[in-house]
Amino acid sequence: MTTCQMNTPPEMDMKEETRHFNTQLAIIGSGIAGFAASIFAVNRKIATAQIGNTGALAYTTGYLDLLGKQDDEQAAIADPWRALEELRKNQPNHPLSRIPTADIHNGFDEFTAFFGEYGLAYSRPGANNITALTPVGTLKQTLCVPATMAAGPRAFAAQKPCIIVDFIGLKGFSGRQVVANLHDRWPDLGTERIAFPDMDHGEIYPEVMARALEVPATREKLAAALKGAAGQAKVIGLPAILGMHRPDHVRAELERLTSLEIFEIPTMPPSVPGIRLRELFEQVLPHKGVTLIPQQKVTALTFAAEGATLSLSDSYGPIRIHTQAVILATGRFLSGGLEAHPDEIREQLLGLPVTQPADRTLWYRDRYTDRRGHAIHRAGIAIDHAFRPLARDRRPYNERLFTAGIILAHQDWIRSRSGAGIAIATAYRAVAEVERFLIAQA
Ligand SMILES: Cc1cc2nc3c(=O)[nH]c(=O)nc-3n(C[C@H](O)[C@H](O)[C@H](O)COP(=O)(O)OP(=O)(O)OC[C@H]3O[C@@H](n4cnc5c(N)ncnc54)[C@H](O)[C@@H]3O)c2cc1C
After folding, report:
1. Predicted confidence band at 197 (pLDDT cuts at 50, 70, 90)?
2. Domains contained in the chain, CATH given
């Protein structure tokens, strides 16, 4: 299949020339769903353009959850693959229920395989969930973790003596809090507070610390401090600060310098692991042939018999992207894909019908912490078997339009701990459907 072409025909507007791009697939959104769709499309040699405004990606912990809890149960899920079978029985409209298990597995496998060669390796999907540490020292179930974090769950499972290190001036991550919350389940856990090299006064920030650790001299100074803090322990847990672009290398170097096993724990958002993902995607995907237009919002999307056209602008002026197919992956309220208005919830770009409660009084239950959750969190876009959004007449809105990610209806990703799982699996399916569509059109 061909790569993207750019033509710049003269425009009526003499001040700012409109730039035109032709492509096979345009992906709207730069969250996990949008980036996963780009990776899957590139691997299938589909010419791709991706446009995404700043979104929720920088908030993520870096963990890739598939299914950590069933909505109506408190117990953590150990085997997410078996839990998917339960989900299919209990929630047949859930996006994950509409995707064969093999496709979900393949999607995770292909997505996690992408990172290793860029120094940000991930564990591959296993038979069971991993019990991982949260920023406050509680435990959660997830399917894949960055390699920089993998030693934490291993040390917890083996109950190895471990020291959680935090830093003078770093807010939002407390070794004492982690130890207090985990003490009953990990008795050999202690904590030490140290100064970060050359940042020993005032408030310090994870992103700045991570970039500082790309410098060998900073690593050597930190290694000396970590050896002092470790005492008898052979394992050290740190907030997620081990470099921005080559965290696997930074961790390996610190382990070499200290002879200790070292792991990261996610911090509160915005978090370094999320920023790492965003920066990696933004650097690598253009080299893979994706026309990436970051930090911009698509303002209009129109369909004609021969294709679709996206309209947007950047600081050089207007842009038009002409494409054969579109994947809408614009997220929920936080990212602007859905909007809550006084009378109803609306889809922001096309005004697609949103599956939602009959009126606003039914959006929330009385108690915020109600274990049954809130109906608003299950609102979203309804799709057909090919992941095409439905119009009001329940037929596909347009044969060229597909959807992926948490904008989809009938799921509450926060309660089921399935944010990345829904994003990756639905992106995998949507790209497969796009490929089928493009072949049929050829
Ligand atoms: C605090 C926090 C912690 C999280 N922790 C985890 C975790 O531990 N594990 C896990 O699996 N998941 C986690 N997630 C969820 C995960 O980060 C993603 O939110 C989720 O996977 C959904 O991805 P998405 O791509 O569907 O949507 P989003 O991530 O919301 O992305 C939607 C994108 O669309 C863009 N957009 C919207 N409208 C337009 C437009 N008109 N034009 C162009 N772009 C547009 C947005 O700017 C955004 O980039 C967490 C999320 C948050 C907020």
Report:
1. very high
2. 5-111+275-441 (3.50.50.60), 136-267 (3.40.50.1860)
